[in-house]
Every structure is written in C-alpha cells, then in structure tokens.
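Handout for the seminar on molecular recognition.
Each group receives one record of this type.
Step one: identify the two inputs.
Step two: read the structure output and locate the region that could contact zinc ion.
Step three: write two sentences on what you found, then compare them with the reference statements printed after the record.
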Amino acid sequence: MERLVKAQLTIEGTDGRARAGRLTLPRGDVLTPAFMPVGTQATVKSLDPHDVRGVGAQIVLANTYHLMLRPGADLIERFGGVSHFMRWEGPVLTDSGGFQIFSLAANRKLSDEGVTFHSHLDGSRHELSPERAVALQIQFGSDVTMALDVCAGYGATEREQIEAMRLTHDWLPRNIAAFAEEAARREHPGALFGICQGGFDPNRRAESARFLADLPVDGCAIGGLSVGEPKDVMAEMLDVSVEPLPTEKPRYLMGVGSPEDLWNGVAAGVDMFDCVLPTRVARRGALYTPDGRISITAARYRELDEPVDAECDCYTCQTYSAAYLHHLFRAKELLGYRLATIHNLRFIQRQMETMRAAILSGTFASAFSDFHARYQPANQVVAAEQRARYRQARDPNTGSVR
Ligand SMILES: [Zn+2]
C-alpha cells in the first residue's frame, strides 16, 4: 500500500531516546513533544480558544463518540468541521470513538465487522466500524484521524487481550483503505494514525507494534495503557511498544497526561500525548505545582496572598492570589474552573517546553532527574486502590475478571 503522507515530522534533536521535533499538519505546525488538551464536546471545558492558545497549546483533541451523537457529524461538516465550528482555527486530532464506546456506551456488541452500541444520552442504537469511524472523522475535518481499535482494560483476561489485538490488527488495513478512499475526494484530508495494542504481555505488545510499523500510516499510536495498571507495568509495556516503531513517524501515547507520565513517556521516545486529567482535576480544585498537586480548597490557602505557583507564568498566577482561587472554589463560582484549568494546562505545557528545550540542548537526563527529585506524584493512592480491585477481581473464588 502507498504511504499516506499528510503529517510530516521533522526531528530537530534527540537526547537518549527522547525526541524534539516539528509536526506539520494541514492547519499548522505542532512543536513536539506535544500535549493535546482534550476538547471532548468540541470545547476544552471552561476555556475558549483564546485561553487554549494562551496556555501554549498548538493542537486539541475532540471525541468522535460524543460528537457523532451530539450534534452529529453532518451538522459539524456543514459548519466547516470541528475546528471552525469551535473557532479553534488550529490542528485538531479526533479519536476513533472506540475507547468511549467501551467505557460509556450501553449494550455494546463486538463483532468482526465492528461494534454496535446504545448511546449513553438517549439509548439510541448506533454502529461503528473502521469505515464509519474514518468517514466520521473526515466529516469532522480532522487534521489527524485515528484508526478504530479495540482496547482491553487492565484486568481483562488473556483471551480478551488476544481478541482485542486480533480485531485491532484485522481492522487496521480496513481503516487505511477507507481513509485512502475518503482522502482521494478531499483537498485537505489530513493524516491517519494507526494504533497498536497487545494488552499487558510484552511479547504481544512488541508483536502489535511491529505489525503497525509495517503499515502505511502517517503516525503510530500506543493504545491501552494508563488504564489502571501499576506504573512499572506501564513503563515496561511502553518500552517494548516504542522500540519497533519507525523513527521517522510521530509516536502518540494515548490517554496519558499526568506530569510524571509525560516525562517518562518523552524519555521513552514518545512525541504526542493527550489526557483529560489536567483539566478534570482542575475543576475539582487540584492544581499542579513543581512539588506536586495541591488542593486549593485546603484551609492553608484561605488567606494566602501569593500565586498558587510562584514559578508559573500563566494568566491565573500572574493575576490572582491563591486566596481568591480558594474563595472561588469554596463558593463554587464558575470563574474558578476556568482559572484552575488555565493554570493546569499551562503547567503541563511548560513541562513540554522544558523537555523540548532540554532535548535540544542535550540536557534531558539532568532535567528528568530534577523533575523527579522534586515532583511528588498524586495518584499513587489511586493506583494502589486500582491494583487492590484488580487482585480482588482476579480472586479465583469470585470467578470473575472485572
Ligand atoms: Zn499558573
């Protein structure tokens, strides 16, 4: 099959396995490593595109599952695609919808053909196949279309993991053929990224990545990680997934976006990330600082006449005191959600900028050590709870796997 060159990655520097580059897409360039804020419903929650630009983001992600159900692909196409509809006149990546179907939709049924499911909004019945997922994303006018894949969660049985990989591999050529057909009819069809899976077995992970590496896609995504597994398992699976991927194509680690995971992902050779975490936790008043996440509603911020993070150059920290943010969250005022989201996204973008500069100056290893020496990850407790649930679910006495 012919290569579909619609996304050009220029590698500008490497340091160890970490890479810095420039990804050229139809609606603009993205400096890498890059973090993509998530605009689930064609909006990064609580921000407008001016705010999103202001934090330094150059590409946003939108969710096919949500947008196909509401307002629908035909409407979005009539309004000039997701990018113009939401007045974010920059690059947009859309996911394939598969992950949300497996986590949100009711009564989903998987077959070789695709997946049928009922909407979480009104129960209406829908189908998604590789061909349909690609057609929807083309209607959305995505700069990057993602192939439809099947993700097996952490705790899935051996058989479920193997079956998820088999379908992902069976569907990938169908995604590519459908994209080529649609792309031939469009002036700016954007790029198509494939996804590798493989569950939590290093051999299968490597096999899936080799399968993807041989196919004519514009970029390679690693799916099915950060779904509740311990950090060391994720690190091992990431390493074996990245290793077979071609160096000249962008690498995208899906659904990963805690500060420590971003540093670890870049160290492993990943170029692109997305995650709802920075925006989701912001709306709960959890704000990033160089030392870790803080809770702005805590009593110690009530009278603090200083920014949340004295080192931060974001609009929020440059303008408001921690005491004011504390007040907004205590009073559940809408402005609090916006200001917290601006801060968290800017914090994440500054991590990306710091990593990029360190890679280009050959100081990534020391920057990596500096970050980890100071930053206390917030989700160790959550991860431990997830592992406990997993062990419980695996208990032979219960006879269930989820
Ligand atoms: Zn800030």
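Reference statements: The domain at 8-277 is CATH 3.20.20.105 (TIM Barrel). The two ends are 39 Å apart (CA to CA).
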